[in-house]
């Protein structure tokens, strides 16, 4: 055998093909981009609507800091509740019916002291600071977490078949 035919000097380099360009993209990438963009727009709109719908909660929490009596907190809770139900339904809630209604709209149990304070807030001149702080704490939790029931009892009574 010939030593020159086995020499590595006679080998040629491997020729690599040119790299595949990203542009222009395949049609599937355009479709995926449109779908992702549409999902982002839908998510942004939902977040915006949710943020706007909860504006009354943010205002109520800010006003709760200024409340100095049980009556103030009760009035604030009523104004907050007006965002979710009709005025006619809330107007009929007095004494024990008012804390019962509040408790039905929120999953956490209402402390007995808070229930007593809300039930008789009109007839008591001023609550103790401990009662007011626990009432404010419960009111803040209620404002943040209460559920809006779209079909209330008075709304069903006013419907025309």
What does this entry look like structurally?
The chain is mainly α and 161 residues long. 58% of the residues lie in helices and 0% in strands. The chain has eight helices and no strands. Helix 5 crosses helix 6 (112-119).
Estimate the mean pLDDT confidence.
Answer: 81
Class inferred from helices and paired strands: mainly alpha
SSE succession:
HHHHHHHH
The largest sheet, given as strand count, sense and whether it forms a barrel, is: none
Strand content: under 5%
Shape: rod-shaped
Count of DSSP E strands? 0
Helix content: 55-70%
Question: What is the chains' assembly state?
Answer: single chain
Terminal CA distance: 105 Å
Radius of gyration: 33 Å
How many helices? The count is 8
Q: Are there runs of 5+ residues with pLDDT below 50, and where?
A: 151-161
